[in-house]
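lol forgot to send this yesterday, sorry. struct tokens for the thing we talked abt
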């Protein structure tokens, strides 16, 4: 293989591999289409590998091209992260940690641990973004975030998972609902009520665990609304569209218009887990993992 392959060749290849269209890729790269075609042809010759099958109106990745797209995308992302880390070091920072989280992690785990950790380590930059469980897994696999907080039972083999909080569930009722702490005996008292639940797209395993609560109580719930936001659940409950069940960590902000009853007598718990990619090479990740390893079981 020639030693003339440069980063720009990789970027050219990835642009065509993503668009599967030389003209569109050339416009995005601000170079001419003939020039881009020559660069890709030269790359194929240098590698001794055909990357694309070219037809009159269609460009298709070969098997070798598909493999290189996956591997080069990942490695180029890591290279960009390394360069960004070097720039932060030059600016007097130790580096950056990017994390995703589901909303309930912001109620307890992130404020109590990560924000306090950053106060003691002001030379580390944290970038936080709320996203659903599956999106976090995708971003971890693509090295777009360093770690996340999810409510998932199963994760891909390349992802590590550590439980950081085991939550009980709480019933969510309108503030003026007849059932209260003194009169509540069993969730079966609410079998004729409409329930507002987290959408199974939020987490299929979490959704199934909530359904188990109903099944053990001897009834199937009337589900009137599905959502991915706790704030939507509370607003719907407050306005008497139904009742709900949420993790206890989502009750800490005491939203107006609703009341909570902890279901501490049932067996179901929902785990909030720290997740990260085993292949992540961010040197700052170890410090965060050590922080959670120190938590009491």
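and heres what i got for the seq, position by position
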């Amino acid at each position: 293989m020639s030693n003339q392959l440069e980063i720009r060749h990789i970027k050219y290849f990835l642009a065509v591999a993503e668009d599967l269209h030389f003209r569109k890729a050339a416009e995005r790269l601000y170079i001419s289409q003939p020039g881009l075609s020559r660069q890709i042809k030269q790359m194929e010759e240098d590698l001794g590998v055909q990357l694309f099958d070219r037809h009159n109106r269609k460009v298709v990745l070969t098997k070798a091209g598909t493999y290189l797209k996956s591997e080069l995308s990942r490695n180029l992302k890591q290279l960009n992260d390394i360069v960004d880390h070097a720039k932060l070091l030059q600016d007097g920072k130790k580096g950056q940690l990017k994390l995703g989280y589901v909303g309930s992690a912001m109620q307890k785990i992130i404020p109590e641990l990560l924000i306090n950790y950053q106060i003691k380590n002001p030379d580390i930059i944290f970038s936080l973004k709320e996203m659903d469980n599956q999106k976090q897994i995708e971003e971890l696999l693509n090295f777009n975030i360093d770690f996340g907080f999810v409510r998932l039972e199963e994760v891909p083999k390349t992802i590590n998972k550590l439980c950081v909080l085991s939550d009980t569930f709480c019933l969510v009722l309108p503030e003026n609902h007849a059932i209260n702490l003194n009169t509540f005996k069993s969730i079966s008292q609410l079998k004729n009520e409409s329930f507002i639940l987290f959408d199974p797209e939020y987490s299929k395993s979490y959704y199934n665990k909530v359904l188990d609560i109903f099944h053990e109580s001897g009834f199937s719930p009337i589900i009137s609304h599905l959502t991915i936001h706790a704030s939507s659940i509370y607003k719907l409950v407050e306005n008497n569209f139904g009742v709900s069940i949420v993790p206890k960590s989502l009750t800490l902000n005491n939203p107006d218009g609703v009341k909570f009853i902890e279901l501490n007598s049932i067996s179901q718990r929902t785990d909030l887990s720290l997740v990260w990619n085993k292949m992540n090479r961010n040197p700052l990740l170890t410090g965060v993992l050590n922080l959670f390893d120190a938590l009491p079981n």
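The chain is about 40% helix and 25% strand. anyway ping me if u want another try
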